[in-house]
Every structure is written in structure tokens, then in C-alpha cells.
Amino acid sequence: MGDPGQFPSPWSPHGSPPTLSILTLLLLLCGHAHSQCKILRCNAEYVSSTLSLRSGGSPGALRGGGSGGGGRGGGLGSSGLCRALRSYALCTRRTARTCRGDLAFHSAVHGIEDLMIQHNCSRQGPTAPPPPRGPALPGAGPARSSGAPAPDPCDYEGRFSQLHGQPPGFLHCASFGDPHVRSFHHHFHTCRVQGAWPLLDNDFLFVQATSFPVALGANATTTQKLTIIFKNMQECIDQKVYRAEVDNLPAAFEDGSINGGDRPGGSSLSIRTANPGSHVEIQAAYIGTTIIIRQTARQLSFSIKVAEDVARAFSAEQDLQLCVGGCPPSQRLSRSERSRRGAITIDTARRLCKEGLPVEDVYFHSCVFDVFTSGDPNFTVAAQAALEDARAFLPDLEKLHLFPSDAGVPLSSASLPAPLLSGLFVLWLCSQ
Questions:
Q1: d(CA 107, CA 160)
Q2: Using a CB cutoff of 8 Å and minimum separation of 24, what contacts does 68-75 make?
Q3: What pLDDT digit, counting tens, does each position of 103-130 carry?
Q4: Are 177 and 126 contained in the same domain?
Q5: What domain range includes position 285?
Q6: Which residue numbers delimit the Repulsive guidance molecule N-terminal domain (predicted)?
């Protein structure tokens, strides 16, 4: 992160709005969009309506004068920006029905809201006039004879870094043991879930865990099956399904392949085994995602590092996701509900877990719960591996160790961020 003082203010006379610059670049580069979803048209109209903020425009627009219906009084171009944002929001509402499930659309909606709050824009007020019809923006067609090369549409991290000059944000979720779930928001729950439950269910990825009781009459369960669906992505991959069960961790997708298929970006999805039969890793570079599946102590563990925009791309009907909201309250177990099923005492369980987990955080307490409940010391490996995955996947290592007092609440009030720039670059991912 550089010193903000080294760069012009976003709305200073010495620099054009960075949001506008990136939007323009996206429109020049974007070659695909959903045939029905009109988000690209909304983006183009927003760029057109804010051109005056970059090139000078009317004095009133630049100074934030006139009855713009919002915007901080001294903000350069705030009045014109608020009008443009209200028009942008109106356009997205009109195309919402046909854009359902479109990552660029959902990211743009969140981004508009962020910018309206940032610039103190009221929801009600005048909108920008329709842009005059004219020739397309230079270079907007498929031919690009000059300028920087287009980012690889199937390389999420490279594309984001090229467009924004910084790496993208990532989130981490894991499920292991009886099972214990660490959500994107740093909730940590021990769950009694039985049967099939979705860990993830968004527009790009579906992950379902199927759990059964550890013993007849026991409250605690373990994951015995995992189903992962990588949804069809034009240019990048065919739809691929991975299924794992205890004692059957294949090193290939269900169709026998080990990549995303014959499309140009097929290599952006790959699968490999680090330890045959017990450790499989799936890389999905086109959506900035890495998944690890392990088998230890006759249970399956799941761990994921996923790009924020991908994790956020779901509708209200897809809101039941253990990685997003943690376990539902009715499905949570407390440590007081553990029941001994083997010959291992609580003191022995603590000693075994302490050997590999010296910090008495939630991973340690989960280990004690699992070893004491199951009577199987091999559960120590599941907790240790989950901690190591978190160490590798978490962008902020200050949140590596959670403690029991934090288990049911987020460590911070921050929800999944949705900056406009982080959303609109995914026009490269529009087609599925």
C-alpha cells in the first residue's frame, strides 16, 4: 500500500477519476457479456455520463454546484457524480431480472452503493441525462491493434493485478472433524448437521458436505462425502464435478479428466494429489480459488481460499451456506454436549492435542472435543491440518488463532466488501 499523499485526489484537477479510468479500460477490453443481461450497457452509460468529470464538463458539474441532490458540499464533481450514480442504479434495477446470477452485475450493484455512501449521495434526486448516441468508444470492438495486451480472462489474480495494480482480496473457510466450521467471517462452530448441507452455493461454485453421526445416538457427526461442482464458464472450463467419499479420494474429476476440458482456458482448472488417497488439491485459477480435501480418522476435511467477488456472487435463494453464515443456531453443539465414546479421558485428549497445537485456540479445543468424543487420537491430525491450511490461506494472520470467546461472533464488523472496481473487472467472467 503506497502513501495516499503521492497520488492526486480521486476528484482533483490533476488526475482523472480512477473509477472512470478503470471502467473505460474495461469497456475497451471486454469482449463478452450475457446475451440478456444489460450490465455492460449500464456500465457504458455510466462512463459516458461521467466523461465531463474527467474532461472538464460544465463549471457547475466540476465544482459540485447546482441542485445535484447530494454530494459533499466541497467535493469536486460530487453533484454530477451523484446524478450519474443514481442513473447507474436505475439502469441496474431495470435489468436485474435478466442479470440474476451475473457476477459483474452483483458486484456493480454493491459498488454503486459503496460509492453513493462514500460521496454522500441521496437515493432520491435528479439523474444524469441519457448519453447522446454516437460512435462506439475507440477500440471497443474486438480488434485491438495498440495499447496494453488484454489480461488473460482465465487468470483471475493476474487480471486483477494488471487492472488494479494490487493483488485481489481472498477469503478462507474450512470444515473438519465432528465437523467444525470456520466461516468467511471468522465464525467458528461445532455442528450437529446430518445429511447433505451446502458449504458453498454461488454462481461459480457449489460444495456440499454429507455428514453422519460418529456413533449410534451421538450428537456429533463427521463428513463422509463431499461434492464439488465447478460451474460452466465460457472460454475457461466445461462444468466439472468432483466427488469424494471416505476411502475414495480420486485424483480426477467425475468424468476422468484432470483439468477444465478442451476450452482455451481449460488448464485454469486442475487437480493433483499430494498424497494419494488422503490429500487432493484443486486449483481453479479462473476464479482465484484453491481447494484442499483430506481424509484423516475416517472423515473428510475441506478447506478453501476463494476470491472475495466469487464468494459474494450468490442470490437470496442461495443464502444457506455454512461458509457464509456458519452453522444455523439449531445445529450448533457446545463443548458441554460432548459425550465420551472411547477409552480416552479428557486429560489424555488435551495432552495429545497439545503436542501439535500448543496454542489453546479453537483448533485445540476442537481437537480435544473430537478425540474425547470419538476415542480416536488420529483426529489430532485433522485439527493440525486445518490450522496449517488457515495459516496458508488467510490473508490476515492476525486472525489465525480464534479463541472460544470469539467462536460465535465475527472478529470484526466488516462484511464482504464490494468496491466498484473490484466488481467491474469481472466483466471478463460474465459468460457462463
A1: 14
A2: 68/125, 68/126, 69/121, 69/122, 69/124, 69/125, 69/126, 70/116, 70/119, 70/120, 70/121, 70/122, 70/125, 71/119, 71/120, 71/121, 72/119, 72/120, 75/11, 75/119, 75/120
A3: 778 778 888 888 889 889 988 888 877 6
A4: no
A5: 171-401
A6: 37-123
